[in-house]
Automatic annotation (TrEMBL):
This is Glycosyltransferase family 4 protein. It comes from Flaviflagellibacter deserti. Transmembrane segments: none annotated. Pfam families: Glyco_transf_4 (PF13439), Glycos_transf_1 (PF00534). The lineage of its organism: Bacteria, Pseudomonadati, Pseudomonadota, Alphaproteobacteria, Hyphomicrobiales. Residues 18-121 form the Glycosyltransferase subfamily 4-like N-terminal domain. Signal peptide: none annotated. InterPro entries: Glyco_trans_1, Glyco_trans_4-like_N. Residues 169-311 form the Glycosyl transferase family domain. SUPFAM superfamilies: UDP-Glycosyltransferase/glycogen phosphorylase.
């Protein structure tokens, strides 16, 4: 199958450091190539892929200090997709709504995976203006704010099984991985770790928009058993997550998926998370972690989470969240969306031809009656 994967340009595929959407696009692209498909990846020029790469920018935008207007580079990306669109059987976008005006009435088979939160009021007019765009959710919970949109499938994320090995969990610390922002609630993680008397290691990025929050709220909480290590890559995650006793995921927003939860599970590391968005879909309670509703419950649940069998955590990850399972889920959708649709006139013509062929055969009268009907 000739497939186009269109990624945002903020991070490379895969990202050098933090980055969820582009990481998933990379895993999906590589798995589709492994399965024998002809894949073209539209992404930043510093991406690394076994697919054919069409760059929309020279390098990932977030780490390029010369970039002032990311939209300009994404317009270049869209134009390059438009130029090649006729070459593909399916165009799979991961660029939110950026491509909608270009492809809403183009006649090309397209699908869009939404990777972000959908409860923002600014999104309401977009889905009213483009009600027929086929959308994939990364969790059922992600759909709730715009349940009226044209959802065609939910596909949970997946990781290559050899990316992050099962770790020993011998580091005697808890882990936090993500962004330092109000909705990720690092402050909760710090309180949980401190009350338990267990060190907390924080591997996180700080966006420009969250600098004030970091300086005013989080920075004063560091120290006293809380170590900030900054952004880490996939190689560093092997040790960071593999040696952690548990991952703390105390989010306070409608989490679309939470990729770090399955990264921890790949390492055999159980997860203690708050009941927001996708969390109950991702965690199998009592197997890969526990889901709580308040700080009191989190304090009480932590010893149970730390006692979970790490090998069972890894086995459940392999069962539910492999990149191959993700790719095959998408392939089933692609095939459905590109299957020829038989219109009513065409169906009548087919039935008529079949009836004519049947009438020339010596068959029981009942069979001819069915064919004519």
């Amino acid at each position: 199958m000739r497939i186009a994967q269109i990624a945002p340009l903020y991070e490379s595929c895969p990202p050098q450091l933090y980055g969820g959407t582009e990481r998933v696009v990379s895993f999906l692209t590589e798995e589709l190539v492994k399965l024998g498909h002809d894949v073209t990846l539209f992404a930043s020029g510093d991406s690394k892929t076994a697919a054919r790469l069409v760059p929309g920018s020279k390098r990932a935008l977030r780490l390029d200090t010369s970039v002032l207007d990311p939209l300009a580079h994404h317009m270049v990306l869209m134009n390059r997709v438009i130029q090649e669109a006729d070459n593909f059987e399916i165009l799979h976008f991961h660029t939110d709504y950026l491509h909608y005006p270009f492809f809403a009435n183009s006649g090309h088979p397209i699908v869009t995976t939404l990777h972000g939160r959908q409860d923002l009021l600014d999104l309401v007019p977009i889905y009213r203006e483009f009600p027929d765009m086929p959308l994939v959710s990364i969790s059922d919970a992600q759909r709730r704010p715009i349940s009226h949109a044209h959802w065609v499938k939910t596909v949970h994320h997946g990781l290559p099984l050899d990316l992050l090995p099962e770790g020993p969990g011998d580091g005697r610390y808890l882990a936090f991985v993500g962004r330092i922002s109000p909705e990720k609630r690092l402050d909760r993680a710090i309180m949980i770790a401190r009350q338990a008397g267990i060190p907390l290691k924080v591997a996180a990025k700080i966006d420009r928009t969250d600098t004030v929050y970091y300086e005013d709220v989080i920075k004063p909480l560091l120290g006293e058993g809380v170590e900030f290590v900054g952004e880490i890559n996939d190689q560093q995650k092997k040790d960071f997550l593999g040696r952690a006793g548990a991952l703390l995921f105390p989010v306070d927003w409608p989490e679309p998926f939470g990729l770090v939860m399955i990264e921890a599970m790949a390492c055999g590391t159980p997860v203690l998370a708050f009941r927001c968005g996708s969390v109950p879909e991702v965690i199998d309670e009592g197997i890969t972690g526990l889901v709580v509703d308040c700080m009191e419950a989190a304090h009480a649940a932590l010893p149970q989470v730390l006692a979970l069998d790490r090998h069972n955590v890894r086995l459940q990850f392999e069962k539910r969240f492999s990149a191959e399972r993700m790719a095959r889920d998408y392939l089933a959708l692609y095939e459905t969306m590109t299957r020829p649709v038989i219109t009513m006139p065409a169906a009548v013509a087919v039935a008529k031809r079949a009836g004519e062929r049947l009438s020339s055969l010596e068959l029981p009268a009942a069979v001819h009656a069915v064919a004519k009907a």
